[in-house]
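INFO batch 0412 | record 1 of 1 | parsing
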Amino acid sequence: MIEIEVHWQRLIFAGKAAYLVSANDVTNQRQAAIAARESEDRYRELFENANDIIYTIDLAGNFTSLNQTGERLTGYSRAEALRMNLTEVVAPEQLGFVRENLARKIQSNDISSVYDTEIITKSGKRLPLELSSRLIYWDGKPIGVQGIARDITERKQVQGALAQQADRAALINRISQAVRRTLDVSEVFETAVRELGRHLEVDRCSLYMKDEKAGRVTNAAEYHVPDVEPAGTDFDLARVKSLTDSMEKHGVMAFDDVAADGRIRDLYRGIVKQDVKSIMYVGVTVGNELLGAFALSTTRQLRHWSEADIEVARAAADQSGIAIRQARLYQKAAATSMREVLVNKLSAAIRASLSLTDVLDTAARELGQALHASRVRVRLYHATGEESSAEREYVAPGSESSSRDDVKYERRLREYFLRSQTPLVIDDTAQKVPAELADCLRANADRTGVRSRIDCPLTVNGEFRGVISIHQSEGVRRWTEDEILLVESVAAQLATGVAQAELFEIVARAKKEWESTFDAMSDGIFIFDKAGRLIRVNRAGAAMENTQARSLLGHQCCDILRTDAETVVCVVEQAIRQSERINVEVVPQHAKRPILVTVEPVLDERNQTVGAVCTARDLSELRQAEAVAREGQSLLKNILESAREAIYAINPDGHYKWCNQAMLEMTGYQLDEIIGHHFIERTHEDDYEVRRIHFSASLAGEPQTYESRYIARDGSVRYAQVNSAPIIVDGETTGVLGIAHDVTEQKQERERAARADKLRALGQLASGVAHDFNNSLAAILGRAQLILRRVKDEDLIRSLGIIVTSAEDAAATVRRIQTFARKSLASELELLDVGGLLRDAIEITRTRWENEARAGGLNIEVTLDAEDGMLTLGNASELREVFVNLIVNAVDAMPQGGELSICCERKLNRLRLRFTDTGAGMKEEVRERVFEPFYTTKGVQGTGLGLAVSYGIIERHDGSISVESRLGAGTTFFIDLPVAEPRESGASESSSGEQTPSLSVLVVDDEEFVRDTLAEMLEDLDHKVVTASGGRDALAKLTSDDFDLVFTDLAMPEMDGWETAREIRKHKPELPVVLVTGYGATAQAPSGESDLVAGIIGKPFDFDQVTGTIARVVGEGL
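INFO prediction complete | emitting tokens
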């Protein structure tokens, strides 16, 4: 298809009308026009919908077009823009650059260029733009410029933020460098305020620090620009309490207009400089403690504190907090070091001299120099009165010695320390002082000129004995915590020195008294060294030898108190050699009268004999009075430490202050786990009150003997027999001395023995009762089976079956009771895998602990840790019964669900089984009775036989069973069994199932109904039967008839079954005898007569048992 443009024209040609028609093909022209219009439409759409500003200007800079984005961002409409020049919107400072760029572009025919600039919008707001422009050509000549401008506000903001962040990092780096460079917080503070003030361009930046103790706020460092006055330096903390409370809560308080902000109006009126326009407080904290705050303010114009300002200030505050923390640590370390040095010096002085005055001089001098105090006075008091026993004073160079405090003040101060043994610290004697001392303290300060002071009590062995007074006269001094600790440390060390010096005086006095007593004693005392040489003798001893003491020294022991007998062994040499005390009566040659000689070896700390002390006493005096033995402290300690019983001492507050090695071995604790701890901490909770009562009684002077439970270090509860008595020193009770002996094993053994006796008695009783029951059951069961073999009626057979079953159940119950007194025979025991028995028990009880528990909404987990090959000799059914019983009991003890863990492990030649549940646990009284027969906590649902029978079973297996439990903490049963080694299994015995021939049988039983029943059963088995009513009757019938087999009862009057069998063996040794007993088939033959009978059958018996026994006995005889 083509398009044709037709032009026609009417002409008159030769008088006739004609038309001139021309046709042109305009197809291409039309298509070009359409394409041009479509291109222009697309450009217009792009132009109007672009996200960037698109504009055109002529070469003079006048706008010739502007898109919709341009209208939106500049605020000018298109019509307004077309009347404007580019210079009217470009930012003034950018105008020259833009003109220069445009001129260069036109001159150089630069097609395009990109640069950043800013314009002023119609609203007056600055708008940063990225400008891209190119020349517009027409006929090869530039006629204008087309530009695309992109809004770069966000980019500029990011760049600005990065720049601010870099500046902030540089600031924090400068402050942190100061923190790392020095431990002097003043230098760090100066750096912080200077750098922070310059960075935020404030007029004033101050750092205020709190002094809680002094109740003041001080200006620690400040930066301010020239012509700005410094801020206040020091004011009361109470005046800014509202501000500090807000700072502790918020951390930062910013006020853009101080004069108009009600929150700071009170501070503005009283503290803040009147020229302050805006101010911001930023807290400096260490941990959660507010230590101070930066105060940043402007004085010339208002300022809005931005988030960036706050963040910078916070960072500076954090670095300052770090500096304070470091300085504190350094100061504490320095103070500790100083304290240790001073204490070491004082310790050295105490060790170097036992003179009390020397110790006091050293303490006063070193403490005064360390604290740079004006004066230090140390004053002591006697233990019994107010009179000062010793006093020393240190006076610093340039200070004057003050006269003693007046008597009234000394008395009041002593009374104060008798009530409160804490140091009295006074920063300013004119300000805060204790009300009870205010009048005399201020009067004393006025007289002595003391402005600040510390008075620290000296406590020796818990008693107030003196005062250390530190005076500062040059001005008010704020005592720091480290300084107070230093004084307290010196006081404690000085107390040790005082105690040591007084102890030395006591020892010296005691030595003098001992020497006087030694020579004044009426008994002769001879002291020998290890070689038997005399090294000391008193006057009485020398008199016994009719000589002077000095002339005897160095003599051998054999030459002292020599007798006329030639063969007498020297008792001194014997005592030294055997390290034992010897008493002997002799008649010395010089004394000519009977003398009782007692030789006691002297032992050192290693228990080695180093000598002997010989005491010689006239027997007449010895019979009139007992000699009092004096043992030295070292000997006493040796005895206490070597004692097998636990010995300990408790102070009046109930805390252990000493114990011997046996105490540690008995309880399992280390020494530091005993000393300083209260005795109740190691006591079983149920015995708290008992031990408190006995302890109080001992303190009151009454010796006590009692039994108590204690908790060992491994958590086990153990028993101890305790003897306690008061410790009396100088007539005062200073504590309680206890001697304890662990009786856990003895108690457990007694409990086991008691339980065994109960079970044995019950078993013996049950055995007799069971015998009678079994006799009756034998008749019932036998008769019922006889009738069953003879009747055909189904109803009767069913009824007889019930009788048989009931009789067998009753027999099983009787056998269960019989187990109390029965010992397992070796022939009954077999090699058992305990792990397999445990797994059987778990499976047997699974319906109980899994199915029934889950049906009730409970979750009970049973876990087993037992390896194969854990072997023991035993009865499988009995041990399985024990395990099942323990599992069922554990499940019953966990009504809310829980976990039962079962473990079996080998320890040497024993197997250790542990059943631990997470149930409710047991009270102690329940735990102690848990193995008693017929004792139950399950009410009517329990028989009380389960654990009693289990106990008997384990005992029969040469094992032991015990239980540990605490109420609310679960229960653990422990079972101990002997280990058995694997052995080769022999050929299994075969039982004969063959029919036995008809036999002639003699049945012996004193119970007619049992005898007749057995006889009829044998006859029913085609045997010929003769009965006898007793042993003698049986022997008589044996003489007249021949028998193939004898069944005899065990318990018969006149002649029992064993005696009957014994007589039968004498007359007819080949005749087999079967013992029938109501005591059970496990009855044991008399010692040495194991082959007396061919078999034993228990009552009640049935046809199978009788048939099997006959087959086995006859088969063995073939």
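INFO post-check: Residues 521-624 form a domain with the Beta-Lactamase fold (CATH 3.30.450.20).
INFO record closed
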